[in-house]
Structures are given as C-alpha cells and as structure tokens.
Design brief:
By secondary structure, this protein is α+β, with helices and mostly antiparallel strands. It is built from 20 helices and eleven strands.
C-alpha cells in the first residue's frame, strides 16, 4: 500500500487540542455535533457529488477551509476532512480519532433511522476496519500477511483468463458496456478463485453480492445465504486446507476464530470487489476520452500504468470513506470537534488540496511516479490490498486493449453519467464500439502461461498476436473447457 511521500512538504496541521470551544462560543448547537450555529451543513449526497465532485469540494474548501460541516442524509451531520495535512493528522492520531463507530453520537441519540442507507458503511463489525490498537494490529497482520502470499504471476494469469472469457462471451454486434459486462464481473471471477470457492459456487456468490450491495428487495435473504456460503467455506478449509486465501488466513499465527475469518472474507470480497470495479471503469474511461492516453495505443509515451496512477489522483475508486469518531472534544483544521462526532475521509478532495499538493496532483506530477496521493488512505489503517488490486486492474485493462485495439466510446464523453454515491466514484455505464467480431483464442489450459500484452495500433485490422486471429460472426468459438468460460456464459445469459 502506498503511503504519502515522507519527503513531501505539506502545510502544518493545527495541533489537536483536548480543549473545547471557549465559554460562550456559539459553536455547538443541540444535537449539532459541533456544527457552527446558523451555518447549514453541505449535503454529501445528491447530484452535486456525482456530477461535479471536484467543484463541490472546491466550494466547500473556499467556504469552510480544510474541515467542512456536511450532512450525510437529512438530519445526520458529520465533518468532511478535505485538507491533505488534516487528513494525515486524522488517520495518524488514533488516540483522538478512533475507528470504532460505536462512539458515534448520532445513533446513540436515536437520530439514525433503522432503515438508513448509512448503516452498511457505518455499522460496527469485529474487523480490522472497526478496531484500534493491538486488536487492529493482530487482525491487520493476518490479512496483510495472507494477501502477501498471493503469487503475482499466477494472479495475472487468473485475471487474464477471466478477462478473455468475458470478452469471448460478448455477441457479434461489436458493442459492449464495459461496466456491466466487464468491470463489474471480472473482479469477483478472480476473487472467488483466490478464496478457494468451488466452481459451482461462483455464479451464485456473484448473484448474492449483487443483491445486497444494490439493496434489492432480496438483500436480506442474499446476505444470509452469502454468510452461510462463507461459513461453510471456512469450516471446510479449516478441516482441509488448500493453496488459497481462506486457508492461509486460518493458518496465520494470529489464530482467527471461524467468525473472525468469515468477517474478513466479507471485507476482502465486498470492499476489494467495489474498488477494483471502479478503478477499472475509471481507467478505461480515461483511456477512451483523453487524447494523451489514446496515443499510447500507437506507441505514445504514456502507459496504462500512468493512467492507473492519474485515476488514483483525480477520480479514486473511493472518493470519501467513513470514518473516524472523535474520542473527546478537540480542534482540527480550525473547527471545533465534539466527542462522538463522525469525521469522513475526503480522499479525492485531499488529493486536490492546492495548499498541500501544488502541482503534484497534476498530470505531470502523477505521471512522474508521484504516489503521495491518499487514495488508499494513510496511517495504520492504510489499505493492505493495493498490490493485488493493481495487478487485477492493470491486467484487466491491458487485456481488453490488446484484444480490442480499436475500442472507442459509443456515446459522447459528456453523456457518461456517474452513480450518485457519496462514497464511490463509479460510472453507471461505459458503452463502447469495436470491430464487429471478437478475435477468438485457442482453448484455454487450466493455467495459461501469461505473457505481457503487445501494443497494437487502432488502425490494425487484425491483431498481430499469433494466438488471436480474426473471426467473422459466423465462425465458431473455441470449446469452453474452463470454469472461467462457463461462468462468463452464465453472466451473458443474465
């Protein structure tokens, strides 16, 4: 996981103080959590967050400074930390800013509705995401060490095989939605393989996750089935270990219980899946809409790796993340914070903080190898899964561009829309056009040898790779022998 460059100069953050507002200061209002009286908090929901988040955060910075009062839903206030230095302070000072959401005053005061959409993101669970201190370190070590055992070459092979299977499943009309038919399906194909789930469970798992992540009417049932599937997996791997993440997690010296293991498999599957989806989609959008990157397909200077990094600066997969909860009255960024207040990490806004970054978050800074962005968080809770995520997303993008070198948007770039989420930066769809055939491949062996994809020109009528030859709509596909192909077929029939 990248961390901010320790050599980079950032403005000093006002030191936290245990002192509250001076006597008589009208900074606290009843139930207001420290929000200034008479100053309405800015909603962190609705069209503004989706349509123009950068302008939204810029206006908040101009009005409030590095820490802004926000409303997460009607009547539910919090603070959005949009200053780079202040966000570092927030993530590094565990004594003042806890990850334990049970400290949040809003639900304690009965002001969070039972059906609030904030519950999935803020409810306390016994995972590394919601703990501090020694217990957090124990669980984090188990997850980080488990992820470190992933064979990167094999991960590329698995991702490439899944990507090729999805592309092969598309129809002969030369159209696709790269969100619905590619980015949203690919990560779970990879994660189910990594976790050691049986092949027949893969399609069912993907269906279950789609239900409860989208809050469908079947979400309660889907969540129960999802938990049951993982409980069964943990029990089987406890009895019969294999070469997979579940077995490695159970074998870690941290000695996780079955319940702890299930909770952390949920974290890996759901959080990792959403991040990979959004990072893939946002990178493909950049490559298809920015002339600098389109030139790379004809041998230009910029690369897919450059595009991945620029997305982490400008449109990170998670634009805001909850959260931290104040353990006492303090001051951050010139704002008085009350005990029990919730503080949201404004990852995208902090990346764009002009006081901290100057030109570092510009194209030249990002493409020059600057990874001081905060897309992965910072401090002791920095995301431990960035390297596997990078491999999955980079391989997914490179495989797609290699297979379909003449890929282009099917609609004007200005017509692309974003999901109205305060947390994710995610496209609703990414419709594309390509040649009216999908280059087939020979039958995929169980473990295909991975080779770096070659760069092809958009003007080429056929791929230059010897393993991909042009296919007309009437020609047959190779026999589907692997689980990846059968799973891709199941998706295409949805």
């Amino acid at each position: 996981m990248t961390t901010p460059d320790p050599g980079r100069a950032v403005p000093a953050s006002p030191g936290p103080s245990q002192a509250g507002p001076p006597p008589g200061c009208p900074m606290h209002v009843a139930g207001g959590g420290g929000i200034p009286a008479g100053v309405p908090p800015t909603p962190l929901y609705g069209a503004a967050v989706a349509d123009d988040p950068h302008g939204h955060y810029s206006r908040m910075r101009a009005r409030y400074g590095p820490v802004a009062p926000i409303e997460l839903e009607p009547g539910v206030e919090a603070w959005l930390v949009i200053g780079y230095a202040e966000l570092l302070e927030l993530t590094r000072n565990e004594a003042l800013f806890s990850k334990d959401s049970r400290r949040w005053k809003v639900p304690a005061e009965g002001r969070l509705a039972p059906d609030s959409r904030l519950l999935p993101m803020t409810s306390w669970r016994p995972t590394l995401l919601n703990l501090d201190g020694a217990e957090h370190q124990r669980l984090r070590a188990a997850v980080a060490d488990t992820l470190a055992q992933i064979d990167h070459r094999q991960l590329r092979e698995t991702t490439e095989a899944a990507a090729n299977a999805l592309i092969d499943s598309w129809g002969p009309d030369g159209t696709a939605d790269l969100i619905a038919q590619y980015a949203r399906r690919l990560p779970l194909l990879v994660f189910t393989q990594l976790l050691g789930l049986p092949a027949e469970a893969g399609p069912h798992l993907i269906e279950l996750i789609s239900h409860f992540v989208d809050s469908s009417r079947d979400s309660v049932r889907a969540n129960a089935e999802f938990q049951a599937l993982l409980v069964d997996l943990v029990r089987r791997r406890r009895a019969t270990p294999g070469a997979d993440l579940t077995s490695w997690l159970l074998a870690h010296p941290a000695a996780l219980t079955d319940e702890e293991a299930v909770h952390h498999l949920v974290v890996i599957l759901v959080a990792g899946n959403e991040t990979a989806i959004n990072w893939t989609g946002n990178t493909l959008r950049l490559l298809l809409t920015d002339r600098r990157f389109r030139a790379t397909l004809t041998g230009g200077r910029l690369t897919v790796a450059d595009a991945l990094e620029e997305v982490l600066w400008r449109d990170p997969p998670t634009q805001n993340f909850p959260g931290r909860w104040a353990t006492g009255d303090t001051v951050l960024g010139g704002q008085y914070i009350s005990e029990g207040d919730m503080l949201v990490l404004g990852l995208a806004a902090a990346n764009a903080d002009p006081a901290a970054q100057g030109n570092a978050s510009s194209v030249h800074g990002a493409l020059g190898g600057n990874r001081a962005h905060l897309a992965w968080g910072a401090g002791k809770h920095v995301c431990p899964a960035q390297q596997p995520a990078r491999i999955i997303v980079e391989t997914a993008v490179e495989t797609l561009l290699h297979r379909l070198p003449d890929l282009q948007l099917a609609v004007p770039a200005g017509e692309l829309s974003w999901r109205p989420s305060p947390w994710s930066r995610a496209l609703v769809s990414l419709p594309v056009l390509y040649s009216a055939f999908t280059p087939p491949r020979p039958p995929v062996p169980e473990r295909p040898a991975w080779t770096p994809p070659t760069t092809a020109s958009p003007s080429d009528s056929t791929p230059s790779d010897a393993t991909s030859t042009a296919r007309t709509p009437d020609s047959g596909k190779p026999a589907r022998r692997s689980w990846w192909n059968s799973l891709a077929g199941w998706w295409s029939g949805r």
